[in-house]
């Protein structure tokens, strides 16, 4: 039976369009040389772009064909050029493997928004303007401090299964870890990077995958990591699922509701005068204390107390007292996005609540689309397709799949009949490798993976005190993809670069 607890929609999933399989079982890569202005310096680097065929050992080692082709995985790798000095020595030069989430998202977002040597030009708030879009040197790229490998898991980007294989085999938690982990091992071996300091950067479901890989790589291959960069984390899905009887998300989303209301200036004057950081801390105290205790009582909560609490929730969320009462003090994410600016005929975004849009009418409980996603998908998809062909010289007639609906049918058999939670995997990996550091990056205006849910997850990691010092948490005044907000891009890039320098 399908476990819909972990589906982002929370409803019965519908299969995404079928992906065509590949008949070609040969590696196809192209290497080019480039220059960019990064970190105030002119850097020369090599880009390798293409697909590698991943194979499964058959046990017939004595025969010529001892492995079976399973999938072709697309990647883009950047290596800093040098003269064999300490900065480019593979035994000292770090390498970072990067991917996004979904499940079903290509790595284009981290690639062209934060980490890669080129990025999409945007204004301070994250608008790239009308097409055609402009690609510029990413002065904040991590390439100055680490070589980079961007991975598109099977079913995303140009990555596909080989003809005769079942698509569903790869679209499941453990099989996804196996295939991405195998690619990392293969890349590390083929490029003699076993001696290099190693990092993984993941965003959203990519943080789920990153935590799983931290365990898989060291347990299966003996590959220990120096650090994980976790951007907009999704590690404990109970903190993110508004299911009947699950009170946790209502508590953890409330500070982000308050930050959103503050941004759109719907709070009382005394609250609007506060900084967003001060307001959030105040709401976190209320949410984790008085509010959480009240929700715990359920129907036993006295009406007088419930009415008083409704006024406080309304005060912090910018919603009316009547509306909060109608929800029995429990405001779900979709309802909040639709209700906050209903009087103005607007809805707010989920990925980034700074952005708004208009639906056909204002009567519903759900918005027609996420305005934050609509703002960025065109620039990222269009620019990546042009960049791969014209700059990196990789040709393919396949559709580069930026974001698919794989999350709707993703397999969760390792978490059957319970919420996905990879916290235990991360805890075990850190105990086995106490030198591994973790950087957590959160956006204050992110309703997909709220910052307070991240705090809750790490506060329940059950690590002994010394290992908690390995975890660094940072917050930014932006959304899920905080790097589209230019002031936050500068800050998060500095935080990641500093993290790499201290952790290698």
Keywords:
10-stranded mixed β-sheet; 504 residues; Rossmann fold; 14 strands; 36% helix; 18% strand; 2 domains
Describe the structure in your own words.
The chain has two domains: 340 residues, 3-Layer(aba) Sandwich (Rossmann fold), CATH 3.40.50.1820; 124 residues, no CATH class. Helix 3 packs across helix 4, helix 4 packs across helix 12 and helix 5 packs antiparallel against helix 13. With 504 residues, it is α/β, with parallel strands linked by helices.
**Number of domain units:** 2
Low-confidence stretches: 1-5, 7-15
Largest sheet: 10 strands, mixed
Structural class: alpha/beta
Please indicate the percent range of residues in DSSP E strands (runs of 2 or more): 15-25%
Total of DSSP H or I helical runs spanning 4+ residues: 15
Shape: globular
Rg (C-alpha, Å): 23 Å
| SSE sequence, one letter per element | EEEEHEEEEHHEHEHHHHHHEEHHEHHEH
How helix-rich are the residues, as a percent range?
A: 25-40%
The CATH architecture term of the largest domain is 3-Layer(aba) Sandwich
CATH topology of the largest domain: Rossmann fold
CA distance, first residue to last residue: 44 Å
Q: Give the C-level CATH assignment of the largest domain.
A: Alpha Beta
Average predicted confidence as pLDDT: 91
Count of DSSP strands: 14
CATH homologous superfamily annotation of the largest domain: Alpha/Beta hydrolase fold, catalytic domain
């Amino acid at each position: 039976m399908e476990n819909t607890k972990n589906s982002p929609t929370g409803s019965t999933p519908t299969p995404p369009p079928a992906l065509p399989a590949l008949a070609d079982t040969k590696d196809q890569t192209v290497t080019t040389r480039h220059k960019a202005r990064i970190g105030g310096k002119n850097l020369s680097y090599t880009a390798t772009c293409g697909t590698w065929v991943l194979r499964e050992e058959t046990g017939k080692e004595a025969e010529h064909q001892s492995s079976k082709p399973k999938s072709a995985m697309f990647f883009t790798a950047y290596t800093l050029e040098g003269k064999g000095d300490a900065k480019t020595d593979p035994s000292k030069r770090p390498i970072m493997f990067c991917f996004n989430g979904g499940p079903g998202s290509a790595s284009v977002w981290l690639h062209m928004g934060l980490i890669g040597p080129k990025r999409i030009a945007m204004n301070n708030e994250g608008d790239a303007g009308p097409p055609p879009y402009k690609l510029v040197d990413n002065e904040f790229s991590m390439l100055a401090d680490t070589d980079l490998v961007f991975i598109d898991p099977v079913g995303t980007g140009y990555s596909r299964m080989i003809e005769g294989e079942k698509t569903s085999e790869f679209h499941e938690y453990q099989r996804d870890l196996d295939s991405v982990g195998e690619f990392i091992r293969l890349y590390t071996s083929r490029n003699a990077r076993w001696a290099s300091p190693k990092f993984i950067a993941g965003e959203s479901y990519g943080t789920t995958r990153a935590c799983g890989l931290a365990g898989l790589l060291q347990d299966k291959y003996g590959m220990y990591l120096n650090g994980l960069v976790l951007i907009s984390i999704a590690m404990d899905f109970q903190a993110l699922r508004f299911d009947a009887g699950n009170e946790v998300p209502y508590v953890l989303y409330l500070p982000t509701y308050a930050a959103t209301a503050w941004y759109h200036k719907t709070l009382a004057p005394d609250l609007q005068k506060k900084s967003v950081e001060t307001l959030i801390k105040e709401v976190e105290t209320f949410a984790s204390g008085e509010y959480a205790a009240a929700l715990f009582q359920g129907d036993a909560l006295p009406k007088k107390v419930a009415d008083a609490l409704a006024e406080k929730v309304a005060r912090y969320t910018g919603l009316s007292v009547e509306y909060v009462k109608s929800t029995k003090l429990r405001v779900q994410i979709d309802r909040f996005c639709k209700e906050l600016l209903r009087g103005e005929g607007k809805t707010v975004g989920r990925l980034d609540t700074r952005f708004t849009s208009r639906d056909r009418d204002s009567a519903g409980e759900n918005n027609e689309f996420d305005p934050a996603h609509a703002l960025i998908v065109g620039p990222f998809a269009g620019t990546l397709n042009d960049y791969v062909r014209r700059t990196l010289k990789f040709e393919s007639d396949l559709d580069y799949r930026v974001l698919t609906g794989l999350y709707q049918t993703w397999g969760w058999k390792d978490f059957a009949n319970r919420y996905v939670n990879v916290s235990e995997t991360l805890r075990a990996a850190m105990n086995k490798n106490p030198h591994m550091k973790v950087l957590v990056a959160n956006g204050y205006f992110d309703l997909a993976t709220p910052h307070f849910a991240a705090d809750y997850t790490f506060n329940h990691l059950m690590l002994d005190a010394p290992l908690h010092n390995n975890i660094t948490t940072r917050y930014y005044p932006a959304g899920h993809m905080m790097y589209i907000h230019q002031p936050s891009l500068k800050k998060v890039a500095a935080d990641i670069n500093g993290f790499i320098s201290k952790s290698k």
